[in-house]
Amino acid sequence: MSHKSASTYAEGTSLAQxxxxxxxxxxxxxxxxxxxxxxxxxxxxxxxxxxxxxDIMDGVALAMLxxxxxxxxxxxxxxxxxxxxxxxxxxxxxxxLPSFFLMVGFAALYLSWGAMVVADKALAGVLPAIAAIILxxxxxxxxxxxxxxxxxAIALIAATLLLTVGGIWTVICIFATAAVVGILRHQxxxxxxxxxxxxxxxxxxxxxxxxxxxLATCIGLFLFLPQLTVTSIxxxxxxxxxxxxxxxxxxxxxxxxxxxxxxxxxxxxLSLEDFAASIALGQVTPGPILISATFxxxxxxxxxxxxxxxxxxxxxxxxxxILASRQLERFSHMARFKAAQAGxxxxxxxxxxxxxLSLLIGIAGEATNLLAPTVIFALSCFVxxxxxxxxxxxxxxxxxxxxxxx
Length: 406
Hints:
Helix content is 77%, strand content 0%. By secondary structure, the chain is mostly helical.
């Protein structure tokens, strides 16, 4: 959604460098969703200075309005901004790979031994640290997001609504209202007048057409394949997961009931116990919870099934967000569009803070003793905000403390 082109960011950054950066991010981003986005911001905005906070917040806003896993969609958006569509694909693949490898290993152990391989104590220590990481990222964005009392009010309202109401329709209403407020606040006589030549912006070319046909094929397979006599299990896996990835909004936890209906009830690929194991293991790997699709694919069709299921759950939404962002760039030269973005960024800031608070509330609700998670959260904030250490050190320290105190 930013008006800057991918070529502006590409100078001096190779695809190999991007792969390594995002592979590292994928290794340390426990908690998925906003936690992963927070680490992306730390690495890409602060450390490597490849894009700025405005781009991150625009990517979060667009990803929350589109179907599929929000965090991976934001990564694809960021990669596209830096090195175009290929950069988006490389970054998305790199950030998923660590979780993919871990999940394949977990699946093999589970299916061989029939036992869960879950580091419960380490995870209990990491969760408060994840809340600190999200909070730290949000606070660092405040200068770009909050420029006056109106911005603060938008952020507070967005955070409150997300915590108390939630849901995709709430998100849509928040963004729509924030955009209108932004336009009204910044309205001027020259609003809507282009400041750049329209010809410099992306058009709906052959690449966009190919992506559109691919996305339509995914939905078509999902809707009509059950009526056809297709026996290939790999085709069935791709159809089920790619279709679901484009038809559900709101992030990974919203997907769980639909995935259960498809893989347990409709197709009978997994028992309810195996499905529960896939979700639990998805929670203790870095990256998004939808990496559970890897477990399901492995259980159904081995390593090939794991690869197909993983590609199908993540690739179509990533392609969609790149397509959408490139078409929105056609409007990025308009003053009203920029004003709407400014309003939406304030709402995104509020939602980031709400994500940290929601995690803390969840931890408090499940804890029998609040002392340990409180100490880990406070220590993580100290390490991040005052010692200025990176997220990887914060996560490692929290995991060790979790093993010692839980």
